[in-house]
Amino acid sequence: MHAARIDAVRKFLLEKNFDAFLLTDPPDVRWCCGFTGSSGFLLVDQSRATLITDSRYQVQAVAEVGKASGLSGVKVEIQRESAIDHISESGLLSRAGSLGIDSWRITVAFAADLEERFPDVELHPIPSPFKVQIAEKHGTEVAALRRAQAVTDAVFDEILQSIRPGLTEVEIASEIVHAHLIRGAEEMSFPPIVASGPNGALPHARPSKRRIRNGELIVLDFGCFVDGYASDMSRTISVGRPDADALKAYDVVHSAQRAAQDEAQSGMRAGELDRIAREVIEKAGYGKTFIHSLGHGLGLRVHEWPRIARRCDDILPENAVITIEPGIYVADSFGIRIENSVLLSSSGSEQLPKSDTSLIVI
Fold this sequence. Notes:
Blueprint: H1 2-16, E1 20-23, H2 26-33, E2 41-45, E3 49-53, H3 58-64, H4 69-72, E4 74-78, H5 83-90, E5 98-102, H6 108-117, E6 122-126, H7 131-135, H8 139-159, H9 169-182, E7 187-188, E8 193-196, E9 216-222, E10 224-226, E11 229-230, E12 233-239, H10 244-263, H11 270-283, E13 295-297, E14 304-308, E15 321-324, E16 327-330, E17 334-337, E18 340-345, E19 348-351, E20 360-361
Parallel strand pairs: 1-5, 3-4, 5-6, 12-20
Antiparallel strand pairs: 1-2, 2-3, 7-10, 8-9, 9-12, 10-11, 13-14, 15-18, 16-17, 18-19
Helix pairs in contact: 8-9, 10-11
């Protein structure tokens, strides 16, 4: 798998007539060569691929990358100071006249440092050049995504048994984190959202000390990393019977989510998928309350390409995993979001979460 990804980088170099490419972001480095450390650069040219990391990861890098060197041709080198110092001192760019870099993943300061240290190398910033290949999930990646989602499903089932009036949002959020970790999650894929009553109208509300009250909705949005791959799921539940306005809005979001999920498949445009859900919400009179895009890619990052948004013309790739998460947010009253991750194919989509999307009243 990683040998093919190194080859994909080299094919890109040939297409662009670049001499080398430098991957600097940990998820991209992991995707390309399998190194799971938090600090490492991967420099690829037509004759060699070099992972540069620091001494903290020497044993780990050899175990993860060195063992596959016969397939991927990746050599591990340990820096003394910075990775840029090592590249300069080792002459890894001595034969390069041009270098590709990912403009989505580097800072202006880092690019300026490269230009200063390698004045004879022409830099070519390219926005996420391997985004399509990263989005097209391999079988082992899908298996890891399923494992992460299975943990999140189990946590959702568990917390439903303990949520009750009087608990604070923070108390529920802490239980979500703890339950994920004891089930084998490496870490949360983002801080959990627990937003009750009027706080639910804030799509990315932070858990507060607000206490849950009877008859109100709670937006729950959480996920974790397992084997490096993320889960991400939103459910909206009610503590006691909600009022008629909330019930009506829930039915609209549920219908929008199902409509988009039923039509989702590879080969369609991202904006078209967004439109399917958005039209359901607009026709019901809630158009101004759906205030974000429909979803995003999911993988080594919790937010990957593609972005599922109304003005996005990107084609959804085969075997991409995306989220479908429409919402309605009524200021000072309530919020509703229902989110599933789905695996795309040319014949449709497969829902990864097993948790029910119907309104749960506890």
